Amino acid sequence: MKVVLKCIDCGEEFQPGAFYRCEKCSGLLDVIPDIAELNVSRELFDSRLGSREFPYSSGVWRFREMIHPLVEKRDIVSRAEGNTRLYRHEKVSAYTGIRDIVLKHEGENPSGSFKDRGMSPGISEAKRLGMEIVACASTGNTSASMAAYASLAGIRSVVFIPEGMIAFGKLSQALAYGAHVLQIKGNFDRAMALVQESSMEFGMYILNSINPWRIEGQKSIIFELIQQLEWNPPDWIVVPAGNLGNSSAFGKALMELKELELIDKVPRIASVQATGANPFYKMWKGKKDELDAVDKPETIATAIKIGNPISWKKAMRAIKFSSGVVEEVSDQEIMDAKAIIDSSGIGCEPASAASVAGAKKLLDTGVIDSKEKVVCIITGNVLKDPDATINYHLGKLKGIHPKFQNKPTVIDADLESVRKAVLG
Questions:
Q1: How far apart are CA 123 and CA 206, in angstroms?
Q2: Residue 154 CB contacts under 8 Å (≥ 6 apart), including other chains
Q3: Residue ranges per structural domain of the chain
Q4: Maximum Cα–Cα distance for the chain, whole Å?
Q5: pLDDT in the model for residue 171
Q6: Does residue 40 sit in helix, strand or coil?
Q7: Which residues of the chain have pLDDT under 50?
Q8: Cα separations in angstroms, 237 against 54, 80, 170, 246
Q9: CA separation (Å) from 350 to 60, 114, 265, 316, 357?
Q10: Predicted TM-score of the model (pTM)
Q11: Cα 424 from chain centroid?
């Protein structure tokens, strides 16, 4: 099958290889398959549901033709990622005011976040190309995922992280899975610049969302979601927005599904940023043509603490294609929404809760109707940032008043104290 990498700025086309930007104008690249050659259908994908055959047991590779049609089976590196569930809970409905709200929990992936979706085809492409070292800049989840998949494939991995700006739950994964972790003196955006410089100098294969194969894998979130809804798209898909890889992937997925006539309508995408790390929101709100970076992004949601998102052009294309919107939410709104998700028995890391906080805000401002079907993407596992969870309930987060606090009760070690504490 013919597959090319196409520049989103000048339209120049290239054969797939170990590069990430247009050699003519430095624009980002899209993976473009020959849609006419894709022999796919709802029936084909449905027939693979529940398959035990490698690689179709994966919620990514079930859609192999639309993810990476070039890679041979022997080069596919998979942990049966995807296959994440949908959750409905009356507490979330009551909190947001949205009657039909569904949470798709990407924290159920092997390394605990959606990153595994893109990392599987990304590492598979590295293996196909014969790369010996892979690298990424990360605020946490990317490093955990890349380290796991690289070790599975027998490839060395190097992680660039901003010193002191990564949750220990995520850092522990990168170390445990065997990555060489470099803590740089600077924020994520400096780490991202350095990993790009290093890849050119030392021949390392980048696995951030600048890599177009990462975006291809993350499309499977949408493919699987709509398949789970029996091919009936929701009205809205709400997603946390940091480096904007998911927003980009979601738009590309919807474009392809529509072109292939696998869906009848296009859901609207709502990308939600944290107020202290909101350059994409400011660009959209101000109707600007270019993104102005936030020099010092600040938010408790470390996974979206990014001031200069690399995929903003692809993400804006997704917003425009889907008639979507961009919103911002405060750390207070994020942590309160997280407390609701957690206490519903679902659980998530702080950045994940931006989707539910954003859905509530969009309903409150009249953008979303309470009768519309809304899917919120939960991007990471509750154990990714335990300090944020504990400190919220202990009331120790600066500037945040825990409206849904669940503080431990200290009692004496006797039955009477238990009776008073439990029965009042």
A1: 10
A2: none
A3: 1-37, 86-110+214-394
A4: 76
A5: 85
A6: coil
A7: none
A8: 30, 24, 26, 11
A9: 25, 14, 31, 24, 11
A10: 0.95
A11: 43
- Can you tell me the distance from the alpha carbon of 266 to that of 184, in angstroms, rounded to the nearest whole number? 42
Q: Nearest-CA neighbor of 384 among 302, 317, 307?
A: 302
Q: Identify which of 278, 283, 234, 277 has the alpha carbon closest to the alpha carbon of residue 254.
A: 234
In percent, the amount of the chain with pLDDT more than 90 equals: 91
Q: Which two tokens stand for residue 7?
A: 């520049």
Residue 26 Cα to chain centre, angstroms: 24
Q: How far apart are CA 16 and CA 68, in angstroms?
A: 11
What does the pLDDT look like over 152-182, one tens digit per residue?
999 999 999 887 767 777 789 999 999 999 9
Q: Which tokens in the block code for residue 121?
A: 């085809």
Tokens of 139: 């605020």
Q: Which two tokens stand for residue 376?
A: 């919120």
Beta pairing partners, 329: 274
| Type of residue at 246 | N
| CA–CA separation, 414 and 336 (whole Å) | 34
CA distance 145 to 149: 6
Cα–Cα distance, 23 to 134 (Å, whole number)? 21
**Does the 86-110+214-394 domain belong in CATH 3.30.930.10?**
no
